[in-house]
Specification:
The structure holds three protein chains of three kinds.
Chain A (H helix, E strand, L loop, with lengths): L1 H9 L9 H37 L3 H4 L14 H8 L1 H34 L5 H13 L2 H14 L6 H25 L3 H9 L4 H12 L1 H17 L2 H6 L8 H7 L8 H22 L1 H4 L10
Chain B lengths: L1 H34 L2 E2 L8 E2 L3 H7 L2 H33 L4 H11 L7 H11 L5 H8 L13 H29 L3 H9 L4 H29 L3 H7 L10 H11 L3 H31 L1
Antiparallel strand pairs in B: 1-2
Helix pairs in contact in B: 1-12, 3-7, 3-9, 5-10, 7-9, 9-12, 11-12
Chain C lengths: L1 H19 L3 E7 L1 H4 L2 H14 L3 E7 L2 H14 L5 E4 L4 H7 L6 H4 L26 E13 H6 L9 H12 L6 E3 L11 H12 L5 E2 L2 E2 L4 H15 L12 H9 L3 E7 L2 H8 L5 E4 L8 E11 L6 H12 L1 H10 L3 E2 L7 H6 L1 H12 L1 E3 L8 H16 L5 H16 L1
Parallel strand pairs in C: 1-2, 1-3, 5-8, 10-12
Antiparallel strand pairs in C: 3-10, 4-8, 4-9, 4-10, 4-11, 6-7
Helix pairs in contact in C: 10-18, 17-18
Classes of the chains: A mainly alpha, B mainly alpha, C alpha/beta.
Chain lengths: 299, 293, 414
């Protein structure tokens, strides 16, 4: 499918008159250079992450000793033990996941509905509505902090997980709307029309026809919305004060002290918190590939 | 009857989203604009109305303009890096390689995205320390012979920041583009093949046109977000050394939470809002031109 | 049926009366529990609540970097805490914002479990006629010494004055790559407080000051002398490279890792240094003098929020924390000197040379604390950091740096 296209493309796509051996060689060279490029780039990009892992498995004194070593000279799991044994930190991880999942689900559902409206309909005020949606992203969140804080307190949601969910929803929803709008826009209207002729209601068109084709977009929107709420720490710090409702980024900030910080614990905490996210992502990836390429409604 | 129902449909779909955003954000957005028209908000119980004085004061402050310039450099540089690397990697990962390898690379390449700003800033601080591993490697291969102060040298700091920002932000573009790639009908590529198209040709004439909405969408979002990005810059360099990496968002934070000048901070925020609004208007008019055609 | 109703009414009545006896809840905002052992502070709270069944204390912990802004933000929204963990440099801004409650009446109470005269006096001195905070603990700024590196460089005891400091620092820097005499953390990263960590202690040991009453006074000869000293150290190669990106945290870690000969920082670090690297030949001495036996005093302070609705209860808790027994344990947990000097453990000094050195400084040297009345403190540090960065990069002279800091600082106060 795409594979055929790209490899043929990279091989300069000459007509099939050429002897097969040369084609196969060319294809292998292409594949090797692809792998080569990917390996090189991936190594460069993951090096900082490897460094983080290294710091988490070293006593901090080693982190600051010379020469800098990627493979720890003294392999220690102290950082991890301290994090795992700390009940607060375990609570932080659970909270981060709960909040992240809630925000993602809500953003996807509400956002896709709105995106459908923007993508498939022209209506009075659509430009204005879209401008409003995007404008919520345009103000630096730090200036929004105090008035938003006031709203959360007024709603009696200060120091609650729901308060954080609502907060992150306001960040994630506009993103979900814009992105799902864009993904839906890539699907030609023919599919809608075919479905409508078949007697589908708009909701049916969205859920049975469009969304299956936009699944990759849905997944990537979900991933980003989750990470958005996962990584956020300014509002998490401001809007919570009890250990029971705090999240991982707050926990990490706690390790930054007045005069020094706990490097190994911080990196360990970060790694522990992120491993499930990574596993989740690896699992969810297979659904990114399915989609329109399976061939949509052809009549 | 059905016709009226039909016309009401888009509003019904839009309602939940607009309701949530409206109730939660209208007041804060309004407040920020309101604060910029008063003096000494938050601190004083009865702030004084000063109209546009805050704006004139701000626009005549050299620090504002240099922060604006830094923001432009930082934003354009980062978004450019994100797009080039993100799209490039998406194409690479989507190419003809073993599916297991694809999953592996895709997972690894998404890693920079997963960590919170505090950790990213501190980790890069370690890497870019004058005696850190980056300098160590550069000296080992002979590129430099003195330890470079990547985050402390005014001439290098912005470049280091761009590097970190590009590293952190490209996964967004990559994943979004990758998802978009799945939706391009293979028949279009096959047709291009028959016409004898090479890779670049197919990319430019098949992939890009099909994915225009996605590309524009992510570019706009990335632009708007990077323009007001705060935690990464503040935690990595604090706007320094000597304000060399001071961007509008760090200026806002400094005014609000170091100086407790919330009026001034809101004024800067409104200018950020204004500039982002210009990008958005361009995006919206471009989009309607595209979808009409 | 009637019996059930009667029972229900009785239950309701009981519930109501139980409510009437419900405890007052006060909130303690601090960062101490994040610095070391959260359990210890929770234990203290439990102990207090056991002794005072009508008061409940909610422990709210923020990372240090966020506390100052949290206090202001929370108060603006109306969700502020009652007992506040404080830093002395925040005083003048907080007073301007009306955040703190005067403590004089409380300090005069007979029922306090401590003697006000025996508290560390630095935070207690009156401003505008009142006392605004009390010391939980105190720590002097000292010179941490890596005697091992000194010996390798040919010296056998720590420096006593600036000349010796410079000589030794330069010699240590020459030992090997990656080892330097002393680090100076002048990074702009938040909180950009390098100047008050290293520059001020040196300045005080030369008898200098940066504030005159409540006005900035940075442009004076002693300041220029101290800035020149820093520049001399740099030009002689005694400073760790990368001054403008070096944070206090990294400075401490490199000292612990044995890569710097000296570290100027609060004495509290001693316990971390000893615990993390027992092989280090470590000494704690006063900051080398240049004419004055003075040290910068810092610590963790406590205050009461002006808009607290439970000030009496808040004070009861503070008094508890300042009482001799509790304060002694607090000092030990935070590796610092107690705020209540009656809680000083005389035996500890006999057994521990590090602690003995701190006692020596405490008892014989002049404590200096001038940041309480310095205007726009936090913003001024960024200014100082930037001008010192510029000076050490060779872009301006110490005189120019001092003048620029002064004029920028004065601008901030307008």
């Amino acid at each position: 499918m795409n594979a055929q296209a790209s490899s043929a493309a990279l091989g300069s796509g000459r007509p099939a008159r050429r002897p097969r051996l040369s084609d196969a060689l060319r294809r292998r060279l292409t594949r090797w250079s692809l792998y080569g490029a990917l390996i090189l780039i991936t190594a460069a990009v993951t090096f900082p992450v490897l460094w983080m892992l290294s710091v988490s498995f070293k006593p901090t004194t080693d982190t600051f000793s010379l020469p800098p070593r990627l493979i720890p000279e003294h392999f220690r799991i102290d950082g991890y033990l301290k994090v795992l044994q700390n009940a607060s930190f375990r609570a932080f991880i659970v909270n981060s996941y709960l909040i992240g999942i809630a925000v993602t689900l809500l953003s996807l559902v509400i956002g896709t509905l709105a995106a459908f409206a923007f993508s498939r309909y022209r209506f009075f005020g659509d430009r204005l509505a879209k401008l409003f949606v995007i404008s919520t992203q345009m103000v630096p969140t730090i200036t929004l902090l105090i008035p938003f804080f006031g709203v959360i307190v007024w709603l009696r949601l200060y120091d609650t997980r729901i308060g954080l969910v609502i907060t992150y929803l306001t960040f994630g929803l506009p993103y979900a709307i814009i992105m799902m709008n864009a993904y839906l826009d890539t699907i030609p209207r023919d599919f809608d029309e075919a479905a409508i002729i078949d007697g589908c209601s708009p909701l049916r068109v969205l859920f049975s026809v469009l969304l299956p084709m936009a699944t990759p977009g849905l997944i990537s929107t979900a991933v980003y919305t989750f990470l958005l709420s996962w990584n956020e720490f300014l509002f998490a710090l401001a809007l919570t004060r009890s250990t029971e409702v705090r999240t991982v980024p707050v926990g990490i900030s706690m390790l930054v002290g007045e005069f020094g910080l706990k490097w190994d614990e911080m990196m360990a905490f970060s790694v522990i918190g992120s491993v499930p996210v990574l596993i989740l992502f690896m699992f969810v990836q297979r659904y990114v590939v399915s989609g329109l390429s399976a061939g949509g409604v052809k009549g | 009857m059905l016709d009226r129902l039909h016309r009401a449909t888009p509003y019904a779909f839009l309602l939940p989203g607009l309701f949530i955003l409206g109730t939660l954000l209208s007041v804060p957005l309004y407040k920020v604009i309101e604060y910029s028209l008063f003096d000494n908000v938050i601190i004083e119980q009865q702030p004084r109305f000063v109209g546009l004085d805050n704006y004139t004061e701000l626009l005549s402050d050299g620090g504002y303009w240099s922060a604006l310039l830094n923001t432009a450099i930082f934003t354009i540089g980062s978004v450019f890096g994100h797009l080039v690397i993100g799209i490039g990697l998406a194409l690479l990962v989507n190419a003809d390689i073993h599916p297991r390898a694809r999953t592996l690379f895709r997972s690894l390449l998404v890693l920079p995205w997963i960590f919170t700003a505090v950790v990213v800033a501190l980790n890069w601080q370690l890497l870019l320390n004058p005696f850190g591993v980056v300098n160590y490697s550069l000296q080992a291969i002979g590129v430099t012979d003195e330890p470079l102060d990547w985050l402390g040298d005014p001439d290098l700091a912005m470049w280091s920041l761009l590097l970190i920002s590009t590293w952190r932000g490209y996964p967004f573009i990559m994943i979004s583009f990758l998802s978009g790639l799945q939706s391009v009908p293979k028949e279009l590529y096959e047709a291009a093949d028959i016409d004898g198209a090479n890779f670049l040709h197919k990319f430019w004439h098949v992939t890009v046109p099909q994915l225009k909405p996605v590309i524009y969408g992510v570019a706009l979002l990335d632009l708007i977000w990077t323009f007001q990005l705060f935690p990464l810059v503040w935690l990595t360099t604090g706007g320094g050394p000597g304000r060399a990496t001071e961007v509008l968002s760090t200026l806002t934070y400094r005014l609000a939470f170091v100086d407790f000048q919330f009026s001034q901070a809101s004024t800067v925020a409104v200018t950020i809002l204004g500039i982002s609004a210009v990008f958005t208007m361009l995006y919206l008019s471009n989009e309607s031109r595209r979808t009409r055609g | 049926m009637k019996r059930a109703m009667l029972a229900a009414v009785a239950a309701a009545a009981f519930g109501l009366s139980a409510n009437a006896l419900a405890a007052t809840e006060i909130e303690w905002l601090q960062w101490f529990a994040a610095e070391q052992n959260a359990d210890f502070y929770e234990g203290l709270v439990e102990e207090f609540e056991a002794a005072h069944p009508d008061i409940r204390v909610k422990l709210v912990t923020q990372p240090f970097g966020k506390v100052r802004e949290s206090i202001v933000t929370n108060r603006a929204i109306g969700v502020g805490a009652d007992v506040l963990g404080l830093n002395m440099p925040w005083t003048s801004e907080f007073l301007e914002l009306g955040i703190l409650e005067p403590l004089d009446d409380y300090l005069a109470l007979e029922s306090n479990g401590f003697d006000t005269a025996r508290l560390v006096q630095a935070p207690i001195g009156k401003i505008d006629g009142s006392t605004w905070m009390v010391p939980l603990n105190a720590f002097p700024f000292v010179l941490h010494v890596n005697l091992g590196l000194l010996e390798r460089a040919g010296f056998d005891k720590p420096p006593m004055d600036w000349a010796e400091l410079k000589e030794m620092a330069v010699a240590v820097s020459r030992l090997e790559d990656g080892v330097s005499g002393i680090g100076m953390p002048f990074s702009s990263q938040p909180p950009a407080n390098g100047p008050i960590l290293t520059f001020l202690p040196l300045l005080y040991s030369a008898g200098g000051r940066i504030v005159d009453g409540t006005t900035p006074d940075f442009d004076n000869p002693t300041v220029v002398e101290t800035l020149s000293f820093l520049q001399e150290l740099d030009e002689a190669g005694a400073l760790t490279p990368g001054v403008a990106s070096r944070t206090g945290g990294v400075d401490l870690e490199e000292f612990i890792a044995g890569r710097t000969g000296f570290l100027i920082s609060p004495a509290v670090h001693a316990s971390a240094i000893v615990a993390r690297n027992p092989e280090l030949d470590y000494r704690l001495v006063r900051v080398p003098q240049n004419g004055s036996k003075a040290y910068r005093v810092h610590g963790w302070e406590l205050g009461i929020a002006a808009d607290s609705r439970h000030k009496d209860e808040a004070w009861a808790f503070i008094a508890f924390l300042l009482s001799e027994g509790v304060n002694a344990r607090l000092a030990e947990a935070s590796s610092a000197l107690p705020g209540n000097l009656d809680a000083l453990d005389d035996d500890a000094a006999a057994n521990d040379p590090v602690f003995a050195a701190q006692r020596d400084i405490l008892e014989n040297d002049e404590p200096v604390e001038e940041l309480r009345q310095a205007p726009r403190t936090v913003a001024s540090w960024s200014v100082m950091t930037e001008e010192i960065q510029s000076m050490l990069a060779g872009d301006q002279t110490p005189e120019q740096a001092a003048t620029r800091v002064q004029s920028r600082w004065v601008d901030l106060t307008r």
